[in-house]
Structure formats: structure tokens, C-alpha cells
Amino acid sequence: MKGLEELHCEVSSWDKVFSTTILALLRDSATLTVFDVIAPRIQNAHSVLLVRALGANSTLRDLTLSSSDVAVEPELFVAFMSSTVTLKRLKVVGNRCAVEYDMLKRIFLGMLKNSTVSSLEAHELCVHKANVKLGAKMLAQNKVLRSFSLLHCSYVSFNMSREEITAARDSINAS
User: Fold this and answer.
1) Does 20 map to a domain?
2) How far is CA 55 from CA 33, 84, 146, in A?
3) Beta partners for 95?
4) What InterPro entries has UniProt attached to this entry (predicted)?
């Protein structure tokens, strides 16, 4: 697979062999420019290894990953976002089974330190007042972002309990 440029894969779980293979491809490929791997229920250890492998890849232009990969080690994700010089498109897909309050905050913090991403997409994430303010700051300061999409995201209020937010999200997903 020396010439592999794009990898697209959506799985519900990873085993050790699959993880080792995917991570080796990401880490060692000199031609991989598109990494579109969504695995919302992988083990935390695999997510950490995935984000570390992202930092080792110097050819990636287009990245799609699950919000769970960002959530496990947000500092690693922000460090990756601040160090990448090739990434142009970032897409983060939320997990319908989990309410992740701070996911957009983590993405926006990464974008504040990034100077290459021109397209940002967030799917099925929670939007609330605090991350809207941070998003506005990111949009005001970012000089390269040309496309920004929030798709199927839920607005949550801090006056709601976690159970109320989960119930509201479940009712949205059911419709």
C-alpha cells in the first residue's frame, strides 16, 4: 500500500489487529492525504494511539474522526491541531449515544492554534452558550477558515440536567 492516498472506513468497534493496521498506515504512510475513519465506540487506549499517530503523519490534508477520539485526550488533539502544517479539512462526528458537552470547545481550542484548516465540519455535537462564545472568537481570529458547518447539532442549556439533555437528544434522534 505504498501509494495509498485515501482511507475511508466506518466501523462500530476495533480489535487489536485492526487498530495496529490502521495506526501503522496512518503513522508510516508517505502518501496518505485523506483519513476518514469513524469508530465511535473504540477503547480509550486506541483513541489515544490514534491521536498520537495523527501527529506522526505529515501528509494528511483531510481528516474525519469520531468525537470520542478527541474526547479521550483533548490536550493531544489541540497539540496535533497546533502542529499540523498540511491539514486543510477537519470533520468531527459525534456519538449519538453520548452527550459530550465540551466537544466543540475542544475543537475550537484546536482551531485557535491552527493556521491551515480551511474547512471545519461538526456533526451531532452539543452546542451551548460557552462554546458559542469560543466559536465566535475562533471565527474572528482565524485567517484561513473558509467553510464552517454545524450539522445535526443540539443546542443545550446549562439549566438542563444531564438526564434532560440525554432525553432531548434521544427524542431528536428518534425523529
Assistant:
1) yes
2) 13, 7, 24
3) none
4) LRR_dom_sf
Q: Domain of 48?
A: 6-174
For residue 38, list its beta bridge partners. Answer: 10
pLDDT, residue 157, reads 64
Q: Specify which residues 63 forms β-bridges with.
A: 35, 90
Total domain count, the chain: 1
- Residue range 118-127, pLDDT digits in tens: 999 999 888 8
Residue with cell 467553510: 147
Residue 21 lies in a domain: yes
Looking at the DSSP bridge assignments, the partners of residue 64 are 36, 91
Please indicate, yes or no, if residue 1 is contained in any of the structural domains. no
3-state secondary structure of 64: strand
Domain of 137, CATH number, reads 3.80.10.10
Biggest alpha carbon–alpha carbon distance for the chain: 52
**Structure confidence by residue, pLDDT tens digits, 63-96:** 999 888 888 888 999 999 999 999 999 999 987 6
- Residues in the chain with pLDDT < 70? 1, 12-14, 40-42, 96-101, 156-162, 164-175
Q: Please name the residue that has the C-alpha cell 497546533.
A: 82
Give the number of other CB atoms < 10 A from CB of residue 149. 11
In a domain, 64, yes or no: yes
Q: Residue 10 belongs to what H/E stretch? A: strand 6-10
